[in-house]
Design goal:
The complex is a heterodimer of chains A (406) and B (237). Helix content of chain A is 53%, strand content 17%. Chain A has helices at residues 7-18, 20-56, 97-106, 139-142, 168-174, 205-210, 216-222, 242-253, 260-263, 265-303, 305-313, 318-354, 370-387, 389-397, 400-405; strands at residues 62-65, 110-125, 128-137, 152-155, 163-167, 181-185, 191-200, 211-215, 231-236, 256-259. Chain A has a six-stranded mixed beta barrel with strand order 2-3-8-5-7-6. In chain A, strand 6 and strand 7 form a beta hairpin. The longest helix of chain B has 18 residues, at 184-201. In chain B, helix 5 runs parallel beside helix 6 (184-201). Chain B has 237 residues and is α/β, with parallel strands linked by helices. The chains are: A alpha+beta (406), B alpha/beta (237). The A-B interface holds A 1-2, 4-7, 10, 14-15, 17-18, 306-307, 309-318, 320, 400-401, 404 and B 58, 61, 63-64, 83-84, 87-88, 90-92, 96, 98, 102-107, 115-116, 118-120, 122-126, 164.
Chain lengths: 406, 237
C-alpha cells in the first residue's frame, strides 16, 4: 500500500511547491521571525537566570529577623497630641530561635536553614582598622545558604575556635595572608585575636571587604548574645517561591521575614521591564510574520483562481478549498519554526563565541532549550493557520464560474 | 413490445436566468428553457455567441443556479438542495470537459485524472489509480501518465481532460467547445473519443460547439438563439 495524502494536504503541498519563489520568500520571512523570537527568548532567559543566580550567590533567599521594637503609648491619650519617636533598633536575638528554625525547616519549599549572628566590629592590624561585619555561622549549615566553598581563593570555608574566614579585599587592605593574626574590636569593648584560616572572593568588593566569618559561639559572646542568633537564613527550592514562603513564615511567627525579592525589588522590576520589552518585540515580530504569510497567500489565492474553480467544478466543497489554504499557512508556520529554531541555534553559537564575560567565559551558553523549540513550533503553526484564514475564506467563497473564466 | 421508459438524466422546465437582479441593468439571458436529455443521448448545443449556451451549460452543470424554472438531475429537483449537496451531486454525477482543458498544472496527467475520485473519496486509493490508468490507456496516453500538463500537446491535454471527466463514470458529460482550440484532425479524434465513451457507458452528453461539421455527427442538435431554444431536432445524418 502506497502512502496517500488526503485531498487537502495533497493539494496544499502541491500548490506550495508550484509557487516556488513565493513559498521561499514566505518561508524565509517566517524562518527569520521564528529565529529572532527563539534567539531573543533563549538569550534573555539565560541572562536573567545568570543575573538572579549572581545576586543570590551571596544572599539568602529568605531572612528571618527579630520583630522591630516600637514605642507604644503607655496611656490611651485620645484627644491629646503626642509625638512618638521611632526607636533605635538594638541588636537582639530571635526569641526561641531553635523552634523557629525547626518550624522554618519543616515548611514546604524550604531546603536549608542556617542560624547567623551578625553585628558590627572593627578589624585591626597595626595602625590600620577597618569596619567589618562579624558573621557567626555554623560553616556546614551556612554553605547551604551561600556556596562559600566555590568562592574560596585560599584555605577552606571552615571556622572553629578563633579561626576565621575573611574576604580578599580585607586581606589586601590589611596586608593579611593565610594563617596571619587579626584582631577584632567591638563597640562594647570586647576584642579577640583571630587567625585567618581562609580567604574568599565572592565577586562583590564590598562584601569581600566587610565579611568576617567566625564560629557561632565566638560571635555570640563577642556581640553579647549568648545562645542567641540575630537572624535565620533560608534557602528555598524555587527561588520565585521565596515571597510566598516568606509571607507564610511571617504569618506563623510574627517576626520580620524578608525574601530576596523584597530586598532586590529594583532588580526584579528591571527584570520584569526587560521581559515586557522582550514580549513587545516578540509580539511585533509575530504580527509582521502573520501579515507576511497572509499577504503572500492572498496573492496565491488570486493566482490559483482557475485551479480553485476547476477543483470546485469537480466537486470540491468550499470547506475543502478552505482547508487547502489553511494547511498552506500551517505548513509554512511549522516548517518556518523548524528552520527558524535551527537558525537561532546557529546565532546562539556565533554570539556566544563572540561575546564573553570579563573572566573570558562565554556570556551565555550556546544551547537551546527544547521547550522554546516546542513553543516556537506551536506558536508559528498557529499563527500560520490564523494568517491563512482570510485568504482561505476568500478562496472558499470564490464563484467557480468566475474563477474558471478568469 | 412496450417501449422502455428511458429516465431523463436532466430535465429543464421553464428555466430562466437573469443577471444583476433588481438593479437597473437587470438582464435575462435565458427565457424559459424546456429541455430534457435521456440516458445515452449525445446532443449538440449550438447557437451564436451570446445566445446563452455557456450560461445554460453552467446551470445544467450546477455551477450556477437558475433564477426561475425547474432543473432536475437524475430525477432530483435541484432547487431544494443545499450548497454542499449541489457540490456533491456535481462531483459525482457530472463530468466537465472545458474548452481550454483546465487541467491542474501542479499535478501529473495521472493525478489530474484521479482528482475527481480524490475529491469524492477524500484521498486516492489503488482502485482509483488503476481506473485512471485504464482511462489514460483508453485515450492513448498511458505512456504520458506521469507528465505534467505543460509537457503535453493541446490534443493530449484535452484527452487527459476527457479521461478526467470520465473518472467517476458520471451519468452526464458536459463539454464546452471541447475542440475549440484544436486543429480539425485532432478535433475529430477528441470528438470520436467522446462518442465512443458515450456508447460504452451510456452516459448522456451535451456538447457546446461552433463547428457545424461536428454538430452534424451528434444524435440531436439543440439550437439556442437569444436565450430561447429556436430549434431542437435529430441531426440529419
Amino acid at each position: 500500500m502506497k502512502f496517500r495524502l488526503p485531498f487537502a494536504p495533497l493539494v496544499a503541498l502541491r500548490f506550495l511547491r508550484e509557487g516556488r519563489m513565493q513559498t521561499l520568500l514566505i518561508l524565509a520571512g517566517t524562518t527569520g521571525g521564528v529565529a529572532v523570537i527563539v534567539f531573543l527568548t533563549q538569550l534573555i532567559t539565560q541572562l536573567q537566570a545568570q543575573i538572579v543566580d549572581r545576586v543570590l550567590g551571596s544572599q539568602a533567599h529568605v531572612v528571618i529577623r527579630p520583630a522591630e521594637e516600637v514605642n507604644r503609648r503607655a496611656i490611651d491619650d485620645a484627644g491629646f497630641a503626642s509625638i512618638i519617636e521611632p526607636r533605635a533598633q538594638r541588636l537582639r536575638s530571635i526569641d526561641q530561635w531553635e523552634n523557629i528554625a525547626r518550624l522554618a525547616a519543616d515548611m514546604p519549599g524550604v531546603t536549608a536553614v542556617s542560624p547567623v549572628v551578625t553585628g558590627p566590629a572593627f578589624a585591626v592590624r597595626g595602625q590600620a582598622s577597618k569596619s567589618v561585619a562579624l558573621m557567626g555561622v555554623d560553616a556546614e549549615r551556612y554553605r547551604r545558604i551561600v556556596r562559600m566553598e566555590e568562592y574560596m581563593v585560599a584555605g577552606r570555608f571552615a571556622v572553629d575556635g578563633t579561626r576565621a574566614v575573611i574576604g580578599s579585599e580585607l586581606a589586601k587592605d590589611l596586608g593579611i595572608r593565610m594563617d596571619d593574626k587579626l584582631r577584632v574590636a567591638l563597640p562594647n569593648g570586647r576584642d579577640e585575636l583571630l587567625q585567618v584560616g581562609g580567604i574568599f572572593d565572592i565577586g562583590n568588593k564590598d562584601l569581600n571587604r566587610r565579611w568576617i566569618f567566625v564560629t557561632l559561639p565566638l560571635a555570640q559572646s563577642l556581640l553579647d548574645l549568648p545562645g542567641g542568633v540575630s537572624n535565620l537564613d533560608l534557602t528555598v527550592a524555587d527561588i520565585f517561591e521565596a515571597q510566598p514562603v516568606a509571607d507564610r513564615l511571617r504569618g506563623a511567627t510574627s517576626l520580620t521575614v524578608e525574601s530576596w525579592m523584597q530586598t532586590n525589588a529594583q532588580l526584579l522590576a528591571a527584570l520584569r521591564n526587560q521581559s515586557v520589552s522582550n514580549n513587545l518585540i516578540r509580539s511585533f515580530v509575530v504580527i509582521i510574520v502573520a501579515l507576511g504569510i497572509a499577504s503572500v497567500l492572498v496573492v496565491s489565492v488570486v493566482q490559483k483562481q482557475k485551479e480553485i474553480g476547476i477543483l470546485r467544478a469537480m466537486g470540491a466543497s468550499r470547506s475543502m478549498i478552505l482547508q487547502v489554504f489553511l494547511i498552506q499557512g500551517a505548513v509554512v508556520g511549522a516548517v518556518g519554526s523548524v528552520l527558524g529554531s535551527a537558525l537561532a541555534f546557529t546565532l546562539l553559537n556565533v554570539f556566544s563565541a563572540i561575546y564573553r564575560n570579563a573572566d573570558g567565559q562565554p556570556l551565555f551558553a550556546a544551547e537551546l532549550e527544547p521547550r522554546f523549540i516546542v513553543m516556537a513550533a506551536v506558536v508559528a503553526t498557529f499563527v500560520g493557520l490564523l494568517s491563512a484564514l482570510i485568504p482561505a475564506r476568500r478562496a472558499a467563497r470564490m464563484d467557480p464560474v468566475q474563477a474558471i473564466r478568469s | 413490445m412496450s417501449t422502455p421508459v428511458i429516465a431523463p438524466v436532466i430535465e429543464l422546465a421553464g428555466l430562466t436566468k437573469a443577471y444583476n437582479l433588481g438593479t437597473p441593468v437587470e438582464t435575462e439571458v435565458l427565457h424559459g428553457i424546456d429541455l430534457s436529455l435521456a440516458e445515452g443521448e449525445f446532443a449538440a448545443l449550438i447557437g451564436p455567441s451570446g445566445s446563452g449556451k455557456s450560461t445554460l451549460l453552467n446551470i445544467i452543470g450546477l455551477l450556477e443556479r437558475p433564477t426561475g424554472g425547474r432543473l432536475s438531475i437524475g430525477g432530483r429537483d435541484t432547487a431544494s438542495l443545499s450548497e454542499a449537496e449541489i457540490t456533491q451531486l456535481r462531483g459525482r454525477s457530472i463530468g466537465f470537459v472545458f474548452q481550454f482543458h483546465h487541467l491542474l498544472p501542479a499535478f501529473t496527467a495521472l493525478e489530474n485524472v484521479m482528482m475527481p475520485t480524490i475529491i469524492a473519496r477524500g484521498r486516492a486509493d489503488d482502485e482509483a489509480e488503476a481506473t485512471a490508468l485504464e482511462l489514460l490507456d483508453a485515450v492513448g496516453l498511458k505512456a504520458h501518465a506521469l507528465k505534467k500538463p505543460a509537457a503535453l500537446s493541446g490534443g493530449q491535454q484535452q484527452r487527459v481532460a476527457i479521461a478526467r471527466a470520465l473518472a467517476l463514470r458520471p451519468r452526464l458529460i458536459l463539454a464546452d467547445e471541447p475542440t475549440g482550440n484544436l486543429d480539425t484532425h485532432t478535433a475529430d479524434d477528441i470528438f470520436a473519443l467522446l462518442r465512443e465513451f458515450n456508447r460504452q457507458s451510456n452516459c448522456a452528453c451535451l456538447i457546446v460547439t461552433h463547428d457545424p461539421r461536428l454538430a452534424a455527427r451528434c444524435d440531436r442538435i439543440v439550437r439556442l438563439v437569444d436565450g430561447h431554444i429556436a430549434d431542437d431536432s435529430p441531426a440529419s445524418a
